[in-house]
Design goal:
6-stranded mixed sheet; Thymidylate Synthase, Chain A; 12 helices; 10 strands; alpha+beta; single chain; two-stranded antiparallel ribbon; 40% helix; 319 residues; EC 2.1.1.45
Length: 319
């Protein structure tokens, strides 16, 4: 039985039954629960990509590779047809003095409620995407999201001004001292919050080596149960597979720990639909054996086999 979907569904029911209604930064509103955990046996269960709705694995791959490159500019994602982060870059542009188009204040909520405004929003968003792809100066100014994950993972700056590559440190330490309790990467740099278009939701992760297996625990301060968490689970599973591949280890457990775990009020019907579905068999992950370094992988080197999910369920992103 596919325990990944079952555990995910269990958490969803728990939020609906025990969560409290709260306001939030986006103005959408949530049903929220504080403190949650999920555990998955990567070796036993298969690759943890939910089957109770189709999850776009290619987007997970390109986003993770974007992080691992240390990149913070949307151009790479747009080149790979990945629009996960578009709204945050778009917000940076429409709130600037350089923006001369129609008023885009609160575009996230307005586009959901007003079809006429949504047409204007989609037009401006397309202009933004095209400019990031084709205009170097524009991309540098408005395509860059600041000191987000890629910067923190690969070029974290200490108080002494020294730059640290946290991912390389973890790889080196696993190979040198696999029993280390310091296999940690943190994206939460208090001095960088004002330079980040969106402060990190999954803010830290730690690896653990035992009996030839690599396990990972990742922590989140804010968890969008319906749209975000399925991606986060699969992304950290993929990261664990990649590090295990380079370090000559098998995969172990993936553990998620969440603080404010919430369902947006405009996702309730979608969540109920997903909770009604029967889990299917999990897929299998295949990595190109010719690639030895985690930093050498490209999208085509990562293949998913046997993925047969229920249909996708669309829902708006809260910005």
């Amino acid at each position: 039985m596919n325990q990944v979907d079952l555990e995910y569904q269990r958490l969803g029911r728990m939020i609906l039954e025990n969560g409290i209604e709260k306001g939030d930064r986006t103005g959408t509103g949530t049903i929220s629960m504080f403190g949650s955990q999920l555990r998955f046996d990567l070796k036993k269960e298969g690759f943890p990509l939910l089957t109770t709705k189709r999850v776009a694995f290619r987007l997970i791959v390109s986003e993770l590779l974007w992080f691992l490159k240390g990149d913070t500019n949307l151009r790479y994602l747009l080149q790979h047809n990945n629009h996960i982060w578009d709204e945050w870059g778009f917000q940076k542009w429409v709130e600037s003095e350089d923006y001369k188009g129609p008023d885009m204040t609160n575009f996230g909520l307005r586009s959901q409620k007003d079809p006429e405004f949504n047409e204007l929003y989609q037009e401006q968003l397309k202009i933004y995407q095209d400019k990031v792809l084709t205009d170097d100066d524009f991309a540098k100014k408005y395509g860059d999201l600041g000191e987000v994950y890629g910067k923190q993972w690969r070029s974290w700056e200490g108080a002494d001004g020294k730059v640290y590559d946290q991912i390389q440190y973890i790889i080196d330490e696993i190979k040198r001292n696999p029993d280390s309790r310091r296999l940690i990467c943190s994206s939460w740099s208090i001095s960088s919050l004002e330079q980040q278009q969106l402060p990190p939701c999954h803010y830290a992760f730690q690896f653990y080596v035992a009996e030839g297996k690599l396990s990972c625990m990742f922590s989140m301060r804010s968890v969008d149960y319906f749209l975000g968490l399925p991606y986060n689970i699969s992304s950290y599973a993929l990261l664990t597979y990649l590090l295990a591949h380079e370090c000559g280890l098998d995969v172990g457990e993936l553990i998620f720990t969440g603080a404010d775990t919430h369902i947006y009020l405009n996702h309730l019907e979608q969540v109920k639909e997903q909770l009604s579905r029967e889990p299917r068999q999990l897929p299998t992950l295949k990595l190109n054996p010719d690639k030895k370094s985690i930093f050498d992988f490209e999208i085509e080197d990562i293949v998913l086999e046997g993925y047969d999910p229920h249909p996708a369920i669309k829902a708006p992103v809260a910005v």
